[in-house]
Amino acid sequence: QVQLVQSGGGLVQPGGHLTLTCASSGFALDDYAMGWFRQAPGKEREFVAAISWSGGTTYHADSVKGRFTISRDDAKSTVYLQMNSLKPEDTAVYYCAARGSHSEYRFTRTYEYDDWGQGTQVTVSS
């Protein structure tokens, strides 16, 4: 049974930083591509970042490029999203997602992922 458990959200001031964690269980993480998405109130869920099964390919949305970094530690069965220079417009519920794949393809659409974490709130406000 695939499980993704997220942690690390919270309230932070503009310009601050947070690291989101997605801990996996029930499957071999190194067989999976992973992604992060976010959903603000009244908006559709949008792509934030993706990392291939090997970790050799990463891709970030233009809105977060240079500020956010996705990474993975398969030995710890964990995927991270390091978020720096946070802005109020980054406020959203963030979700990690998994897709069984040994491709280096950049999976950026919600329907391309099979399993999802529970979501964690990130609020950027002074």
Offer a concise description of the structure.
The protein is mainly beta.
What descriptors fit this protein?
126 residues; mainly beta; 7-stranded mixed beta sheet; 4-stranded antiparallel beta sheet; 48% strand; globular
Q: What is the element layout, followed by pairings?
A:
Elements: E1 3-7, E2 10-12, E3 18-25, E4 32-39, E5 46-51, E6 58-60, E7 68-73, E8 78-83, E9 92-100, E10 115-116, E11 120-124
Parallel strand pairs: 2-11
Antiparallel strand pairs: 1-3, 3-8, 4-5, 4-9, 5-6, 7-8, 9-10, 9-11
Task: Supply the number of helical segments.
Answer: 0
* Oligomer class: single chain
Strand content: over 45%
**Silhouette:** globular
Helix/strand-derived category reads mainly beta
Average predicted local confidence, pLDDT = 96
Report low-confidence residues grouped into runs of 5 or more. none
Largest sheet: 7 strands, mixed
Report the helical percentage.
under 10%
Report the count of strand segments: 11
In whole angstroms, the N-to-C terminal distance is 40 Å
How many whole angstroms does the radius of gyration measure?
13 Å
What is the N-to-C order of secondary-structure elements (H for helix, E for strand)?
Answer: EEEEEEEEEEE
What does this structure look like?
With 126 residues, this protein is mostly beta strands. The protein has strands at residues 3-7, 10-12, 18-25, 32-39, 46-51, 58-60, 68-73, 78-83, 92-100, 115-116, 120-124. 34% of the residues are buried. The model has no long low-confidence stretch (mean pLDDT 96).
